[in-house]
Amino acid sequence: MAMSDAAFTRERLPGAAAVHFRPVTIERRRVRVGLIVVSLVFLAVFLLLPVVAVFVEALRGGPKAFMDAIFEPDAAAAIRLTLLVAAIAVPCNLVFGLAASWAIAKFDFRGKSLLNTLIDLPFSVSPVISGLIYILMFGSHSLLGPILKSYGIQVIFAVPGIVLATIFVTFPFVARELIPLMEEQGQGDEEAALSLGASGWQVFFRVTLPNVKWALLYGVLLCNARAMGEFGAVSVVSGHIRGLTNTMPLHVEILYNEYNFAAAFAVASLLALLALFTLIVKSVLEWRYADEIAATRRH
Amino acid sequence: MAALHIASIKRPSVIPGFGLALGVTLSYLGLIVLIPLAGLFWRSAQGGPAEFIRIATDARTLAALRLSFGTAFIAAAINAVFGMILAWILVRYDFPGRRIIDAIVDLPFALPTAVAGIALTALYAPNGWIGSLFEPFGIRIAYSATGIVIALVFIGLPFVVRSVQPVLEDFDREVEEVSATLGATRAQTVRRVVMPTLMPALLTGFALAFARAVGEYGSVIFIAGNSPYRTEIAPLLIVIKLEEFSYSGATTIAVLMLIASFLILLAINLVQSWSRRRYGDV
After folding, report:
1. First to last CA, chain A
2. What whole-number percentage of chain B has pLDDT above 70?
3. Looking at per-residue confidence, does A87 or B136 come out higher?
4. Which position among A103, A247, B95, B192 has the lowest Cβ density within 10 Å, counted as fewest Cβ atoms?
5. Coil, strand, or helix at residue B15?
6. Cβ within 8 Å, pair A51-B119
7. What value, to the nearest 5°, has the Cα angle with vertex A16 and ends A15 and A20?
8. What is the pLDDT tens value at each position of chain A, 299 positions in all?
9. Residue B210: CATH number of its domain
10. How far apart are CA B249 and CA B238, in angstroms?
11. What is the tally of structural domains in chain B?
12. Which A positions 182-241 lie with beta carbon below 8 A of chain B?
């Protein structure tokens, strides 16, 4: 639609160069150019420049300093821990997202909208509070903490606490992507498969899952980006033990506070690369997945 | 027994797996989100009302809450203006790089907050690329409330754009044509025909950006300067109370922030139901 309007405004009457036809539903050229320029400047200053700054600062010390900062043992341990935490948290939220969207999108039941609201709850809780609630549950001053400790299980200032806080913060991502799409697709395909004799699991794996695969991948990617990048919640429960409970974002903070800026930005640039990768895959998926939604609407 | 109970809350369906799916959903939701959050409220109630009020009315707590909510409000207002313009140009205009701009809008969702924090600080510090431009005029951006607003603008922008964009895409252009044929200027049409329809979505985006900004921690603590009473945000004060082992202090501030967030969520829901009543399902 935008394209046809733009084409229309460029049209001239032959021999009457001064006469422009502008559709009534589009602004004057001056206004349009002004709005575009304002937006581009705003985006460049507020969004693009920070990312550019990360890479410039990371490479300021030269490639060798960059490599040293990344392969230094504490940094390598932080990278390993970040990968481990994401490898646990993302599949947990994936299973939850599939279960929640199956229940919400394929059935009508009482309390559905309340359940929908509760799933979004972690989005509106400060990351610091997300960490705090697990300290209150599993910390040394809690009810459960001392009991678990007597069995040799430590949650806070250890990996389980980091995983829990990460799961909380990334809780809604997969479900949020799947629920609207599955609601739109309805139950027709599943009912057809069932009437042809498929079992419940066959319907799920052969009909429902292929129908939502791109949205699912997109949700998993966002969930993963947030899981690897989470700072506030993890910072509260981790205890910042170097080489043991430091994730990549926490390692960035420690290096930064030690005025080791080149190393801080080197590790940060890895996280920025992850963000850029996520955005690129997301955009590619959106172009593909737009066709798929159109396809499911057709039948 | 269980099957009977489930049948009574759900409309009959031939699709299997309701019990399993809802069971997994509710158990997981309960264990990860609801029980720990309930624990927070239970813990804050244990101290008694006198202790709660003492911490809630402490000057440092009030200063932190005022700063968090004030800067979040300013940042969300800035985002409402620029997010609206961005959504407008992305939906209505065609220009080179439009798809790339559309993708870049989501950058704050994908970029870890700590990375955003140190990058913004590097830019806006007195010796940074942008900060050094303002330093000669005595304007300090990083390590002041202005720096906090800039970090919150960064993280909140996509909420407004992504709330307004779909509504604008679905907007019926014929309504604008009718308005023009009835003699309205373009400005009048935009202000009196288009804007009222977009208002609920814009408010939703504003509220989402505001709620996110109030709780934001990672991107702010690097740029804020973190001096008590002046540039200390409420989430940071929770962390400080925890480090001092003042659990009642931490839980009280957390409960105050959560109550505020719940009120914002409630406001979003009211705005949405109001918009549905007034303009139909958009």
Report:
1. 25
2. 94
3. A87
4. B192
5. coil
6. yes
7. 140
8. 444 444 444 444 455 455 557 777 788 888 889 999 999 999 999 999 999 999 999 998 888 989 999 999 999 999 999 999 999 999 999 999 999 999 999 999 988 888 988 998 898 899 999 999 999 999 888 888 888 888 988 888 999 999 999 999 999 999 988 998 898 888 889 999 999 999 989 999 999 999 998 889 989 999 999 999 999 999 999 987 877 889 999 999 999 999 999 999 999 999 999 999 999 998 888 887 776 654 443 33
9. 1.10.3720.10
10. 7
11. 1
12. 187, 190-191, 194, 200, 203-204, 222, 225-226, 228-232, 235-236
Shortest alpha-carbon distance between residue B33 and chain A (Å): 7
Q: What span, in angstroms and rounded, lies between the C-alpha atoms of B118 and A61?
A: 17
Q: How far is CA A248 from CA A225, A270, B241, in A?
A: 12, 9, 25
Place of tokens 């099957």: B3
- Are the C-beta atoms of residues A23 and A7 closer than 8 Å to each other? no
Closest CA to A186 of A217, A215, A212: A212
Size of interface A-B (CB pairs under 8 A): 301
CA torsion sign, B208 to B211 to B215 to B217? positive
Q: Which residues contact A282 (CB under 8 A, 6 or more apart)?
A: A218, A221, A222, B103, B106, B110
Distance in angstroms (rounded) separating the CA atoms of residues B60 and A220: 40
- Phi/psi for B16 (5° steps) reads -85, 175
Task: Report the sign of the C-alpha dihedral through residues A106, A111, A117, A119, in that order.
Answer: negative
Domain-embedded: residue B196: yes
Q: Domain range for residue B71?
A: 65-233
- Residue tagged 């700590």 (tokens): B114
Question: Residue A206 corresponds to which tokens in the numbers above?
Answer: 């052969």
The amino acid at B16: P
Q: With an 8 Å Cβ cutoff, are A110 and B10 in contact?
A: yes
Q: Do B173 and A35 touch (CB under 8 A)?
A: no
The answer as to whether B13 is a domain residue is no
Concatenate the DSSP letters of all residues of A215-241 into one string.
Answer: HHHHHHHHHHHHHHH--HHHHHHH---
Pairing between β-strand A12-13 and β-strand A16-20 as defined by DSSP bridges: antiparallel
CB atoms within 10 A of CB A261: 18
Structure tokens given for B134 = 């303002």
Distance between CA atoms of residues A229 and A252, nearest Å? 11
pLDDT at position B280, please? Answer: 55
d(CA A90, CA A223): 6
CB-based contacts of A275: which residues, under 8 Å, 6+ apart? A51, A225, A229, B107, B110, B111, B112, B115
* Exposure class string for A101-127: b at 16+ Cβ within 10 A, else e: bbbbbbbebeebeebeebbebbbbbbb
d(CA A229, CA B9): 40
Whether the complex's predicted ipTM surpasses the cut of 0.90: no
User: Which residues are CB-contacts of B115 (< 8 A; sequence separation ≥ 6)?
Assistant: A54, A229, A249, A252, A268, A271, A272, A275
Best probe of the B interface among A9, A10, A24, by most B CBs < 10 A, is: A24
Q: Is residue B274 part of a domain?
A: no
Q: Rounded distance, CA B79 to CA B203, Å?
A: 11
The sign of the torsion formed by the CA atoms of B73, B79, B85, B89 equals: negative
Residue B143 lies in a domain: yes
Q: Do A96 and B28 touch (CB under 8 A)?
A: yes
